[in-house]
Amino acid sequence: MSPRKRRKFAKPLPVASAGAGTSWRLDDGSGNGRIPIAETSAAAERTKGQETIIPPAPLYFRLLFSLPIAGLFAEWLLPLHRFAGTATAKAMLEHLLLLALALLLTGSFRLPGSINVSGRLFLIVLAWQRLCATPEGPGGWYSHIAHVAGDARSLVFLQTSALSEDSRLLLLALGWGLLVCSVQQLALLRGSAALFAVCTLVYLLALDLFFQIDVTGDIPPVLGFIVWLLAQSRLLRLAERTRSFALPYGRWTAAGLGLAAVLSGAVWAGGAVHAPQEAKPVSIRKTLEEWRDFAEARAGESYSAAAEPASGAIAGTTGYGGVGQEMGAPLKPGNRPVFTAVTPERVYWRGDSAAVYDGRRWAGEETEPKPQNLTSLPAAAPGRALTGSGRTLVQRIELAVPSAGGFPLFHAGIVLDIRQIDLADGSRLGYVLTRGDGAYYLPETSARDAGITGYTVESVLPERRPDRLRTLTGADPAEVADRDLQLPGTLPARVKMLAASLVEAAPSRYDAAEAVMAYLQRGYTYTLDTRIPPDGADFADDFLFVTKQGYCVHFATAMTVLLRAGGIPARYVQGYAPGTPVPDSMPQRVAVTEGDAHAWVEVYFPGAGWVPFDPTPAGPAAAALAAAPDSAAGLAAEPEPSAHPGADAPLPALPQAGGPPAPPALAALGLAAAWRWRRALALLPALLRGGSAGRGRQLRAAALAWHGLTARFGAPPPGVTAREYARSLATDDAALRGAAMGFVRQWETLAYGGSGGAGHPPPRGPSGWPLSPPQRTTGAVSAADPSAAFIRRCLYIVLRLA
Fold first, then answer.
1. Which pairs with CB-CB distance under 8 Å and at least 24 residues apart come from 60-64?
2. Percentage of the chain with pLDDT > 70?
3. What is the mean pLDDT of the chain?
4. Is the pTM here over 0.70, yes or no?
5. Helix (H, G, I), strand (E, B) or coil at 185
6. Same domain? 27 vs 73
7. Domain range enclosing 35
C-alpha cells in the first residue's frame, strides 16, 4: 500500500452486476468524480473495449509535459514572426504565443471544471482585448463588444465578409485557444501526441515549400520537442495499461529530455556540416493554370513588348522588336509561334534591356557586343558576381523555325551557363555575343550556315523575398548609377513631383518599387488601342497625365522613369511572358507565341543585383479570369495578371509586391471556405461510398439540401406543400429551380415510401411545416433515379446555393 499512501480513497462501492465482483473507486481530490482503478476479471470482461482514463500524474510531470507542447506551438508562430513585415503582425503573433503559454500553464493544474473553463475563457478574452489594442477603461471594451454584437447577425447568415476586424480577431483568439487546450488535454488525459507532432512537421514543410519561409533552423528544436513529448506520452500509455501509480516520472522525463537533446544536437551538427540547398517551390498553381487555359480556350488579348512603327490608325502586330522605335502605336494580338521550351517552372523569358530614354523611345548600349566562347562559361558569367536567390533553373528552348540568329538568347533570371546551341545540320555553335550587362545574343549565321534550332541555358533566379529585399542597403555601383539613373533634361516637372510623392515616403527601396507598381496597376487601364504621343510630348508624361491607358510598354516605361526620377536605378526590359502549357507533354513544355511578347522593369538592389517587377495590370479578358481581390492585405502582394491567359500567375522570377500571402490569412480563408462549403463536404462521403445508398443515408442528404434551401430562401409559410415551395423560389437560376423540383419529387417518394407505414406519423417538411398529401408519382421516377443520383442531386443543390 506504500505507493498509494498519498492517494485519497473513497469508500468502496460495489458494482451492481449479477455474478460480478466488486470494483474499487479512487477519488483524485479534484471534485471531478471517481476514477475506476481495478475491477474483477468478470467486470473487466464486460467493460472490455470501453474507454479508460489514465491515472492522474504528479503536478511537476504535467508541467514538464506541457513544456514540449509549448515549444511546438512556439515553433508554429516563430517562422511567421520572422516573416511578418509589420510591427502590428509581430505583436499579434506575440500575443497568441503568450495566450498559448498561459493556457498551457492553467491546464497543468487540476482545477475544478467550472474554474478551469472560466479561467481559460478569461484568458482568451484578455488576449482578444490585447489583439484589438483596446484603450484603457470600460469605454474601449464597450466599443469592441458593440462591434461583435453587431456582427452576430452577419455570422448567423454566414456573411463572413461583413464581419468587423474585432469579430475576426475574436474568432482567431477563440480558435487558437481551443486548439491549444485540445492538444494539451489529449496529451495529458490520453497520452495522444503523435497527431499534433505530425501536423507540426507538415505545417513547417508547407511554410518552406509553398511560402518560401526558411524553417531550416526550426527543425532541430522541433524534432527535440517531438521526441520529448512522445517519450512522456509513452509513459502515460504505460500507466493506462499497467494501472499502476508507482511510475518513474522523474527518471523517465529526464531520459526523454536527454534523448531529445542528443537528437537535436545531431540534427543541428549534420545541418552545419552539410548545408541544405534551397528546394524549388512546389505549387499547384501550374495545374490550376492548365485547367483554366483549357476551359477558356486560350481566350484573351496578348501583351506586346514592342511594336513596328505605325501611322494613323494602322495597328501593328504584337511581337518582339528591338529598341530605338517610337513607342505608343496601336497593336493587334499576334499568334505566330516563336519557340517551345522545357522548363521546370513557368517564368518570364528575359531578352534584353534598355538604359537610355530620350522621352520618345528607348535606346540600348552603344557598344557593340563582343563574342564570348561557351567554354568560358559559367566562370565568366556576370551572374556569378551577383547574389540572386541561389536557385538555378535549366531550360531547353527549341525555336519554331530554324533562325539565322541576330536576336537575344531568351532565359530566366541571370545566365550562369549556356550548355549548347544546336544548328539544323546537327552541329553546334561555340560562342555567343554579349555586352557584359547580363544579356546574351545569338550571332547571325551566314546563308551557307545551318540555322539555329535551339539551345540549353542554365540560369539563377533573382532574389524575390520581400523580407530580405527590404533589409538590403548600401551604395549603388558607380556604373549602375551613371547608366540606370539617366533621364532626359526635358522630362516634365510634374513627372518628377509624382515620383517624389510615391518614393520619398517609402521606408525601403523595395517598398518604393511596390508603391510605384501599385499606383500604376490601380490607376491606369490596359488597352492595345493607343496612339503615338503628339510631337514634342514626353511618352511617360503623356501616359501618366493625359491618356492614362496603354499596354505593357507604357506601364514599364512609366515605372522605370518614376523610379529613376526618385533616385532608384531601374531599367526597361523586354522579353516574353511564360507562354501556354502544351497539353499532355512529357516533360512539361510551354509554347510561346508573338502574343506573349512583354515588357517589364528591373530594379537594382545592392547585394542582390537586378530584381524584376511587372507593373502591367490585367487586360479586359484576363481581368475576368483573375478574381483575386487587390484590397486584402495578404492578396495585394501578388502581381496583377497579364492579358495572356498563360501569363497571369505570380511567377517565380518576379517578386510579388508585399510578399507572398500570409499563412494566417490563408488559414483563415481555408476555414471560411470549409464553413461555406460544409454541407457539400458533408455529402461527399455519402456520394463516394460505393453501393446503393440506403434510405437513411438519402434522408440525411435530403436534410442538408433542405437546410440549404431554407437558409437561402427562408422557411415556407404554414400550409405550403413542398412542391409549391419549390415552384415559389425567388431565383432567376433556372438550373437551380429545375433541380429543386426534381429533388422534391424524389424526396416525396422517399419520405412517404420505404419504412414509413401504418403507425408512423406523417412526414414533415423542412422546418417542420405540415405537408399536404403528396401527389403520387409513378414508379418510373424512382427507377430512373437511383439512390446515388438522388445524393448527387442533393450535392448539386448545395453547391449551387454555396
1. 60/249, 60/250, 61/232, 61/249, 61/250, 61/253, 62/108, 62/109, 62/188, 63/105, 63/108, 64/232, 64/253
2. 64
3. 72
4. no
5. helix
6. no
7. 2-46
> What are 693-745's pLDDT values in tens digits?
567 777 777 887 887 787 777 777 766 777 778 877 877 777 788 888 888 88
Rounded to 10 degrees, what is the CA torsion of 44, 50, 54, 56? -90
Contact 787, 693 (CB under 8 A): yes
Contact 318, 331 (CB under 8 A): yes
Distance in angstroms (rounded) separating the CA atoms of residues 201 and 209: 12
**Same domain for 659 and 683:** no
- Grid coordinates of 625: 479570369
Give yes or no for residue 588 having a pLDDT over 70.
yes
445: number of Cβ within 10 Å: 18
Nearest residue to 570 via CA among 623, 505, 620, 517: 517
Whether 118 and 210 map to the same domain: the answer is yes
Query: What value does the mean pLDDT take over residues 419-434?
Result: 85
Q: What one-letter code names the amino acid at 412?
A: A
Residues 720 and 749 placed together within one structural domain of the fold: yes
**CA-to-CA dists, residue 395 to 407, 411, 541, 582, 701, angstroms:** 18, 8, 39, 15, 51
For residue 766, pLDDT over 60 is answered with no
Using alpha carbons only, how large is the chain's radius of gyration in Å? 34
In this structure, the answer to whether residues 25 and 107 fall within a common structural domain is no
| pLDDT tens digits along 334-391 | 888 999 999 888 889 998 888 899 999 898 766 777 888 887 776 544 444 445 556 7
Q: Is 251 a member of any domain? A: no
Would 209 be classed as within a structural domain? yes
Both 186 and 310 in one domain: the answer is no
Cα dihedral 160/161/162/163 (nearest 10): 60
Cell readout for 240 is 493506462
Cα torsion 120, 126, 128, 131 to 10°: value is -130
Cα–Cα distance between 796 and 802 in angstroms, integer? Answer: 10
Please say whether the beta carbons of 199 and 187 come within 8 A. Answer: no
269 within a domain of the structure (yes/no): no
Range scoring the smallest mean pLDDT among 38-52, 536-550, 566-580: 38-52
Neighbours of 437 (CB within 10 A): 18
Is 193 part of any domain?
yes
SS3 573: strand
